[in-house]
Amino acid sequence: MLRAVGYAACVVLAVAGIVAADEELPRKGGRLGVRIAAIPDDVRAREKLRAGEGVLVEHVLPETSAAHAGLRAGDLLLTLDGRAIDSVPTFLETVPRMKAGQRVVFGVLRDARRLTMPVTLGPRPPDRGASFDVLYRHVVSKGARIRTIVTRPHAPGRHPALVLIQGLGPSTIDEPLGGRSAYRRILSAFAEAGYVTVRVEKPGIGDSEGGPYADMDLAGELDVYRQALLALGAMEFVDRDHVFVFGHSIGGVFAPLLAAEIPLRGVLVYGTVVKSWAEHVLENTRRQAALGGSKPASIDSTVTALGIVMQDLFIDGKTTNEVARTRPHLRGVVDRFFPDGRMYGRVLRFWIQLHRTDLAAAWTKVDTDVLVMWGRHDFIATEDDHPRIAAIVEKARPGRSTYVAVDGADHGFPRTASVEDSFRRWGTPGADISTTMVTTMKAWTEKVRHAR
Fold first, then answer.
1. Positions of the chain with pLDDT lower than 70, given as ranges
2. Check whether domain 30-123 has CATH 2.30.42.10, yes or no
3. Which end of the chain is more exposed for a tag (fewer CB within 10 A), N or C?
4. Where are the domains of the chain?
5. How buried is 234 (Cβ within 10 angstroms: 0-12 exposed, 13-18 middle, 19+ buried)?
6. Alpha carbon of residue 65 to chain centroid
């Protein structure tokens, strides 16, 4: 185990495996310059659009490719190069893969008129801060160069560091700090407070090689974050004794696995899971079906069928085609929850590995301080998992865990009025991000840093 030889030896491994690896990874990603959201139901009905068809342009950034091409807030993007845009996740997965100089054509619905609008993508501009520099670097994982974005404080000396491991999804993190999104607000707050911050672009997204991201398994993605942490320890401006990892959602699964290998000063997680993955999916399916108004009998039938399918897939190792063939009465459940042999857009192998990972055992090996957070209006992650993580850590390392339930926050950090309100508003534009998250994280890390 790397822990046995300490962070200094980890750094030697990082230098040997990364610094001499190859040339710097070029910044090749293109920038469209729009913020998009799901099309509201009333707009969809008025424009007679199919369910899932298109996305709404919520905002166009000035002096960007979208602005120069004439896209406007309120436009509905229906097609990209002749292919239908069928969801916000599809759009967010496609756009980060576009390159600077690439010409694309959008099918646009504006004021009841259908337009064809070509856009030539410009390069993403480098980020900068008033009190920190932004460094575009990379690590090598499984032979692929992976983009890392590091903020370095202007002040001399070594500085504490916060590494972000984001949740599930193909969104790029190559965006300026200080924007409206929760990740950018959190990272900006820490960067301005004198921390080194690290973002890791996922394989196949933005500048990163490798992927496709949707085909990455759990072990492969874990190695990406492992290499980023090892490279961080080799940076001369980083205080290696005060490195923190923040894992959100699925990122909270990777956090304890990394902390069991690499010495850290602290681990922070929010909206994550410690139960088996199948148990979480059944629990979450039941909760969201109830919030959506499904009848109890229908919910029970769906959860029972889904449990059988996941037993076949996760335990017995069958493929989705085999399950559909041998259990034809469950084909509808297979098609609904595992379209094209995937779950939530990721290859099935990822979820099988996650289900077979003993997360509770991983947390017992985390020899550091741990902050576990859950938003009281989170309808995706279950509250029970979070005090359970804290209790596991507390039993193994007394006095090292803290659990905080964040009032008024949902899974993606927006401030909402209730769980039901979070469910109704999920994915809608203009959400007000809860500031409690940032203040809680900063207060805790400072307390841990200065503790004896």
1. 1-23, 179, 428-431, 452
2. yes
3. C
4. 2-21+126-275+357-450, 30-123
5. middle
6. 26
Structural contact between residues 355 and 278, judged by C-beta atoms closer than 8 angstroms: yes
Backbone angles phi, psi at 366, to 5 degrees: -80, 105
Q: In this structure, what are the phi and psi dihedrals at residue 110, rounded to the nearest 5 degrees? A: -135, 120
Q: Count other Cβ atoms within 10 Å, centred on residue 199.
A: 23
Q: Which helix (H) or strand (E) holds 377?
A: none
- Tell me the pairing of strands 369-375 and 401-406: parallel
How far from 337 is each of 89, 159, 320, 330, 381, CA to CA, in Å? 16, 45, 10, 11, 18
Which residues lie closer than 8 Å to 358 by C-beta, 6 or more apart?
A: none
Superfamily, domain 2-21+126-275+357-450 = Alpha/Beta hydrolase fold, catalytic domain (3.40.50.1820)
Averaged pLDDT score across all residues of the chain: 90
**What distance in Å separates the CA atoms of residue 371 and residue 402, rounded to the nearest whole number?**
5
Which structure tokens are listed for 198? 């690290």
In the block, residue with structure tokens 């962070």 = 7
DSSP class of residue 415 equals: B
CA distance 79 to 77: 6
Instruction: Please give the pLDDT value at position 425.
Output: 85
Pick from 172, 180, 255: nearest CA to 207: 172
Q: Which residue from 198, 191, 186 is spatially nearest to 231, judged by alpha carbons?
A: 198
Rounded Cα distance, 20 and 351, in Å: 34
Q: What's the distance, CA 301 to chain centroid?
A: 31
Q: Using the structure block, give the residue that is written with the tokens 């900063």.
A: 442
CA distances, 353 to each of 211, 220, 223, 356, 359 (Å): 17, 11, 14, 5, 11
Amino acid at 436: T
Report how far apart, in Å, the C-alpha atoms of 350 and of each of 8, 101, 166, 169, 310 are.
Answer: 31, 34, 16, 13, 13
Q: Write down the pLDDT at residue 2.
A: 30
3-state helix, strand, coil in the chain (%, to 5): 40, 25, 35
**CA distance between the termini of the chain:** 26
> Hey, which residues does 370 pair with through a beta bridge?
267, 401
Q: Which of 333, 273, 323, 274 is closest to 299 using CA atoms? A: 333
In this prediction, residue 153 carries a pLDDT of 97
Q: Is 104 helix (H, G, I), strand (E, B) or coil?
A: strand
CA distance 14 to 49: 51
Residue type, position 144, single letter:
A
> What is the separation of C-alpha 19 from the centre of its chain, rounded to a whole number of angstroms?
27
Nearest-angstrom CA–CA distance, 79 and 85: 5
The per-residue pLDDT for 414 is 86
